[in-house]
Fold this sequence. Notes:
Lipoxygenase-1, six-stranded antiparallel beta sheet, Stress/Tellurium_Resist, tellurium resistance, TerD
Amino acid sequence: MNLTPGGNAPVPAQELRVRITSGGQVDASAFRLYADGKVQGDADMVFYGQPRNDDGTVSLVSEGQYSTFTVALNRLKPDVQKIAFTVTCDGGQTVSGLRNLSIDVEQGATGLVSGSVELSGRQEAALILGEFYRRNNDWKFRFVAQGFNGGLKPLAEHFGVNIADEPAPAAPTPPVVTPPPVETKISLSKVSLTKRSLQSA
């Protein structure tokens, strides 16, 4: 079944695959959401840096222009209300620069629902492509195609995730001249690695 934006269809509460196809380089992510539409912690986000969530109900494999999520709807905790699937363009690009962008839901070799994004004229750097959601104890899939002009930051904030700002570069310090040591010694010093982190709001 081919959906238009806003359209939905029932899906079985089983293990399903969600395949995202893009005619260009994008980063795909999934967010596990609760009654307030927000995440509860870092473990609720699945992306290239964390390709599996804490209980293994959502996992990601990315190969080139294809990203495939495996979602075990039948094993999700009862308080999980949605799984949202998103893409973010790299390097300041927008989705209009992609040749195509689509999302397909499959059970085994059977295609269940799909949706293709109309890219012409779109200037967003990130999109919510679609979502699984509970309705009367059953599961449905909705094709969303909602964009965010600012890319990953507003997209993450929409789901209750804050992305830490990059630290400002330290001011240069003048070189210190020290006399050569009388005896050569091995000095072990701690190496501090600063990394962008995701913290739940």
